[in-house]
Amino acid sequence: MEITIDSSITSKIPDFKVGFIQYHHIEVGSSPQMLKGRLQLFQESIFFDLHDKSVTELEGIAAWREIFKRTGKDPNRYRHSAEALFRRVKKQNYLTTINSAIDLNNFFSLQYEVPIGIYDCSGLKGNHIELKVGETGQTYTGLNGRENSLENLIVACDGDGPFGSPFVDSDRAPVGEGTKNAVQIIFLKPSLSKEESGKLTKSLMDMFIGIHGGEGSFEVVGG
Q: The dihedral of CA 151, 21, 105, 19: what is its sign?
């Protein structure tokens, strides 16, 4: 599968880039105790770090709020997924375990301060993913159970149209215990160099495979 970035994004954010990982023959299940423990301890650490600080002061959170502004999406109304996670933690509404893939996704989203999406390939159509800015009238039913407006929002599209975004993903390709093949999109900070982006993406892939088995390949696109 290949991923490309449309000019509707790069014309507004020339240094926009993503990490793209493809996984094959993975086994998703309940999270190992190691991951559960690390996620809990990390959230507690973030809670204390945010005691006298606003979530929007964090570099990654601020960078993605700025990206939303540049594409025309109000970041106060539409908070990107990493900011939403941090706001939960700041309220001590800690994330509960879902499955090994989602828990690890959330862990790295908190660590890197950026949105990260993971999708079951069986729910996607075709061999091409395009990242673009959503058009007027486009919507999808999200994992939040609501119909979400995609206008001016960065979206990931396959042969059937938009299925994911750094705001909330659609309910079309969620990763669960039956998932064997998946793709992951790391919505990187534009300020990261290509080299730093590659190291970060590979680190995530290696830990994911360490927990889920299977094989993986990665690339950094854009920037």
A: negative
| Mean pLDDT score of the chain | 97
| CB-based contact 128:178 (threshold 8 Å) | no
User: Own/partner pairs for 143-150, CB < 8 Å, 24+ apart?
Assistant: 143/168, 143/169, 143/170, 143/171, 143/174, 144/168
Residue 222's pLDDT is what? 96
d(CA 46, CA 56): 13
SS3 24: strand
> Exposed, middle or buried: residue 107 (CB in 10 Å: 0-12, 13-18, 19+)?
buried
Residues 6 or more apart from 148 whose CB is under 8 A from it? 139, 140, 141, 142, 167, 168
The answer to whether the CB of 120 falls within 8 A of the CB of 182 is yes
Measured between alpha carbons, how far is 113 from 163 in angstroms, rounded to an integer?
A: 22
Buried b / exposed e along 184-215 (16+ C-beta atoms within 10 A)? bbbbbbbebeeeebeebbeebbeebeebbeee
Residue 74: pLDDT over 90: yes
**Backbone φ and ψ of 159, nearest 5°:** -65, -20
Task: Say which amino acid occupies 65.
Answer: R
